[in-house]
Design brief:
CATH class of the largest domain: Alpha Beta
Distance between the termini: 12 Å
Radius of gyration: 22 Å
Order of helices and strands: HEEEHEEHHHEEEEEEHEEEHH
Shape: globular
Oligomer: single chain
Number of strands: 14
CATH architecture of the largest domain: Alpha-Beta Complex
Structural class: alpha+beta
CATH superfamily of the largest domain: Nucleoside Triphosphate Pyrophosphohydrolase
Number of domains: 3
CATH topology of the largest domain: Nucleoside Triphosphate Pyrophosphohydrolase
Helix content: 10-25%
Number of helices: 8
């Protein structure tokens, strides 16, 4: 199952990003299309679809039209790019009459592989914007490989920086008889939302190591029978969610209040009621999240 922000249909042939001449020729092709982004959010049509513009528009309006990022080739072979419009919002207003939409709203509306393009553009543009300077020597970085590498401009340094992806494990913990699941809410979650527990992977850890550390730290339990369920790019700013199911032998919780506001066991009947009544004291995560889909999968026992 392709989750929101995944399942892209764009493809980049081997070696294409390394060839600046070929990238330039792709950029000025008549069938090349560009996704303009303001504050990393893309332009949309009146119906909420992605709003693509041709090169002639980008070239006439964008202050930095030489530096779009290359997203890939569409199934019809047309090149697709994204560009950060920076402070040129007024200049772009004539070409983007419906403005720019938050990517969470876009993902909820589109709910298909177009959301993968949104995630790609958002993550890369934000990464570039936050890494103008070399982390080793402080010199300016130059955007290379169609946006997928930053090169330090200091010849004495020459550091290369690549896009960062932060893996996060999210765990649907179930009781030994699979009649209950463990859900909670961390301090940075919106009020009322309950979710499977999650945490960032640390250096030197496998997925299983992270699961056992996180669950032991947060609720004092040890996991067995860990099963990989699915994964999802999560562009806030650039995480990769690794969804797993795991079983515990005991159900006595020791809640770490520094980590969690709340944690408890829920039966399927309780979850079904929460799903039917989202205005109650407990609500599901957004439908665009892997957490939502893992909870529904457990409800259906799949």
């Amino acid at each position: 199952m392709a989750l929101p922000f995944s399942g892209t249909l764009l493809f980049c042939p081997n070696g294409l990003r390394e060839d600046e001449t070929k990238l330039h020729k792709l950029k000025i092709r008549e069938d090349a299309l560009f996704l303009a982004c303001s504050k990393f959010n893309p332009a949309t049509t009146e119906s909420g679809d992605l709003f693509w513009v041709p090169w002639r528009v980008v070239h006439s309006v964008a202050a930095d039209s030489d530096r779009p990022i290359f997203l890939g080739l569409a199934p019809d072979g047309s090149p697709r790019f994204a560009i950060d419009i920076g402070d040129s919002l007024e200049a772009w207003s004539n070409f983007t009459p419906n403005g720019f939409q938050n990517i969470r709203s876009i993902a909820a509306h589109l709910a298909d592989n177009r959301t993968a393009i949104v995630a790609q553009a958002h993550s890369i543009l934000k990464w570039i914007a936050h890494h103008h300077f070399c982390s080793r020597c402080g010199s300016n970085n130059a955007v290379c490989l169609g946006g997928y590498r930053l090169d330090c401009t200091n010849p004495a340094c020459g550091a290369l920086t690549f896009p960062r992806i932060d893996p996060v494990v999210i765990i649907m913990v179930t009781s030994r008889d699979n009649e209950k699941c463990l859900l909670g809410r961390s301090h940075d979650y919106p009020d009322k939302i309950i979710s499977p527990l999650a945490g960032f992977m640390e250096p030197g850890e496998s997925i299983e190591d992270t699961i056992n550390r996180e669950i032991r730290e947060e609720v004092g339990l040890t996991c067995t029978d860990i099963r990989f369920w699915g994964n999802q790019p999560w562009p806030f700013p650039s995480n990769l969610m690794l969804g797993c199911f795991a079983t515990v032998e005991k159900d006595q919780l020791t809640i770490n209040e520094d980590e969690l506001v709340f944690a408890d066991w829920f039966t399927r009947k309780q979850l079904e009621e929460i799903f039917r009544n989202p205005s109650g004291d407990r609500i599901f995560p957004q439908s665009i999240s892997i957490a939502h889909h893992m909870m529904k999968a457990w409800l259906k026992d799949v």
